Amino acid sequence: MDVLAPKQPKRFTRRSFLKLSGLSALGLAAYAGEISRHEISIERHSIHIPRLPDSFRGLRIVQISDVHYAEYTEPFFVKLVVHEINRLKPDVVLLTGDFISFGPLPQHFGARFANPCAEILQRIQCPQRYAVLGNHDAIVDAPAVTDALTTHNIPVLHNRAVPLERDGRRLWIAGLGDSCVQQADLGRAVPKASRSGNEPVILMSHEPDILPDVAKYNVDLMFSGHTHGGQIRIPFMPPMNLPTLGRDYVEGLFRVGPTQLYVNRGIGAVGLPFRFRCPPEITVVTLA
Questions:
Q1: How far lies 282's CA from each of 57, 78, 96, 243, in Å?
Q2: SS3 breakdown of the chain: % helix, strand, coil, rounded to 5?
Q3: What does each C-alpha distance from 273 to 14, 69, 73, 111, 265 come to in angstroms?
Q4: In what order do the strands lie in the sheet containing 252-256?
Q5: First to last CA, the chain
Q6: pLDDT values of the chain reduced to their tens digit, one per residue, 288 residues
Q7: Three-point CA angle 207, 179, 116, nearest 5°
Q8: What is the Cα–Cα distance from 245 to 34, expressed in whole angstroms?
Q9: Which of 55, 68, 191, 216 is most buried, by CB atoms within 10 Å?
Q10: Whole-number Å distance between alpha carbons of 276 and 273
Q11: Which of 125, 20, 34, 116 is nearest to 75 (CA)?
């Protein structure tokens, strides 16, 4: 009778390790580029504003930011975001900049995407919707982005404010020009009635790191984007590639003096079409 020799276990060679590592990297890239980049997270917060008139308590504000249309955010995904916003039935929608991208395509391509992006955003069903520009918009073609948005009934608040009125009381919505290109003017954007009176103001500023300066103007609540929340978050490591004026306040809620800040992670991506452990965000804030 023949005796079968026991099978020898396969050796885990350097070649096997490299092959497995390559497959893992490909799988991670596919997940970050196709799945994680399209997993919308709806973040809900109740924020108390002490001098808010009672008639505005319960006001529901929805914020999105950093669409980066076509480079790399696909039209179908922007439409999905709009569908989710409409399902939330907001009272006010704030769009905090970077509708298009500066790169990787040449600059004139980015400008072409402003109008198709605005066409989709026009489908947001909300009586009050306002926008500010981001640094990518300002660098590529600020007039083109502004024209696209306003043509599609989305006012751009460039260093100015508009009042919302209920029962004879006011809440101001203000917007700043982009700080990265030195177009922000807080003196023009924040109404005097808010700086020294009892009329609260909500400010849109694409870049969050100007919060200490904003607090000097007695702003009640500030909405920003710009950081993408870090976009790719490796476990046990800090965000690796944060932009100028987006390094101190990366995502979520903060406070300096009288001013509360919320930083949205954004919808799109820059640099690489990836998101990892940092999903696209729609923010819902209820004023209390």
A1: 21, 12, 12, 21
A2: 30, 20, 45
A3: 31, 12, 8, 19, 15
A4: 160-166, 169-175, 201-204, 221-224, 259-263, 252-256
A5: 86
A6: 555 555 555 555 555 434 443 433 344 444 444 677 899 999 999 999 999 999 999 999 999 999 999 999 999 999 999 999 999 999 999 999 999 999 888 888 899 999 999 999 999 999 899 999 999 999 999 999 999 999 999 999 999 999 999 999 999 999 999 999 999 999 999 999 998 889 999 999 999 999 999 999 999 999 999 999 999 998 989 887 899 999 999 999 999 999 999 999 999 999 999 999 999 999 999 999
A7: 75
A8: 29
A9: 68
A10: 10
A11: 116
C-alpha 266/C-alpha 26 separation (Å) is: 25
Return all residues near 205 (Cβ < 8 A) that are at least 6 apart. 96, 132, 175, 176, 179, 184, 214, 222, 223, 224
Residues in the chain: 288
Q: Round to whole Å and give the CA distance between 241 and 17.
A: 29
Looking up tokens 């919707």 gives: 129
Structure-block tokens of residue 31:
């997940």
Alpha-carbon Rg for the chain, nearest whole angstrom, is 22
The residue behind tokens 């209390």 is 288
> Do residues 61 and 202 touch, judged by C-beta distance below 8 A?
yes
Domain 42-287 belongs in CATH node 3.40.50.1100: no
